Amino acid sequence: MNLSARTRRATAASAAAALALVLSGCGAGSGDGAVSLGFVNGGDTEFHTCLQASVKETAEAKKAKIFTANSHQNPGTELSNIEDMISRNVDALIVQTVNVDALKGDIAKARSADIPIFLTSVVTDDPSDILGAVVVDLKQVGELDAGFVEKDAAGSSVEVGVIAGAPGAASDLLVNGFTKALPDNAKVVANQPGMFNAAKAQDVAENMIQAHPKMTYAFVANEEMAFGALKAFQAAQADVKIVTVNGTDEGLAAVKDGRFAATVANSAMTTGKIAVTNTLKLLDEKKTDKIAMTPISLITADNVNSAPQYCSVKKKS
User: Fold this and answer.
1) What is the maximum alpha-carbon separation in the chain?
2) Confidence of residue 99 (pLDDT cuts 50, 70, 90)
3) pLDDT score at 170
């Protein structure tokens, strides 16, 4: 019988560690607390907070031990966090990367320690290097917002501004999906990073509307930044329709009352649940999708009441 990576590492461990594993059980996700998972988070946005809450809740519900660390959008910190999780001899790593370029080093470190790695939000070009992934189709997220602009503009020539997140990983995929799907009548007149920070996004939006007073749409790479951009547009008395991403309670309320024109819902809670559930199944070599997808949907005032729950924890005031 072929041994899983987890079993091979346990066999090679010290006698004390091996004894502890034997006493604590032998099956991943078997409900006896035998499995330990390391979750390395990439940042501090509401998405990251909600994702981590879901990962922890799901792991605890399945009696798995969970360690967490945050890389705060720093690739070097991410690699250090990976190394720390390896030192804890976790059975698997779940990683929300800060940058797809950082993954090569992450995966190499994990593989050298024979620890499988499961990704959230993105997937590598070669999935054979990883245990699995749960992916938000960020390109399609951008395309859905672009589709709203196309339908809403109805063939009229319009100017569009883009407020991206931090360069790399999710933001690039989102922005490329959006800009490449726009119709010919929609011209991108500005594209600047807001660094997933509401105050920074507000500054960017202020500069955009000053430079491009005819701008009628803004694509903003998450709802936190979108609220910052909204303040800038309101202060300038500019009628700019905001399309954005997440589907948080606050974002849905803004769609409902018209402050946002549209958002694309991609539940962080669902992503976290899938990540832990599939990691445990794949560790036990049970049948499940190696690459799973988080459901997404375009939310407007017409269907806002059907949006999925985004987060299991309430945002602090």
Assistant:
1) 72
2) confident
3) 78
